[in-house]
Amino acid sequence: MACTKKDHVMPHLLRAQTALRHERDAYLDRLLDEAIRHRAATIASGPPRTSTPPIDKRIMKAVEYIHANLGDQRMNVAGIAAAAHVSRFHLTRIFGAAMGLPPAAYVRQRRLELAKELLAHRQEISIVNVALKSGFGSQCHLSTTFKKAYGVPPAKFRKNSAQQQR
After folding, report:
1. Checking CA distances to 113, which of 30, 47, 79, 128 falls within 20 to 30 Å?
2. Taking CA 158 as the corner, what is the angle to CA 156 and CA 164, rounded to the nearest 5 degrees?
3. Using one digit for the tens of pLDDT, what is the confidence trace for 138-149?
4. 106: Cβ–Cβ under 8 A, 6 or more apart, which residues?
5. pLDDT tens across 29-49, in order?
6. What CA dihedral angle connects 53, 55, 59 and 61, to 10 degrees?
7. Residues 29, 21: Cα–Cα separation, whole Å
8. How many helices (H) and strands (E) does the chain have?
9. CB–CB of 86/65 below 8 Å?
């Protein structure tokens, strides 16, 4: 009965079966027997499988390429697709299915997160350099994108972060 120690349902089924044996109800006996057989088969089949399949190696290559080239303003979907050895169309389809958003949106999100980290923890770097290090073409591009994503411009975010760290 090693299975019953790992399983939380089986002991309850067995106790119910024992308790109902005194009732002499054939219908309930059959139901509990069936439930116990089903539970035993479920336990014997091993741990439940996860509903999400493992990430495709091509997606992993694409993500690695994105993270390695995050600061490169010239990075685009065609370059990411080439690094992953798939067409742009196929990359967009499989990347979106696996990651929940298209490659360009993923790149923008990672760049914004990098900019946010640099703004909050690297006060000595100018906002222009934060923009360039995080892959934005200009401070204006960073400011527009940052404000749309976080509701405040980068300078105000930096100021608020500095005040919170004190």
Report:
1. 79
2. 105
3. 999 999 999 999
4. 63, 66, 95, 99
5. 777 777 777 777 777 677 666
6. -150
7. 7
8. 10, 0
9. no
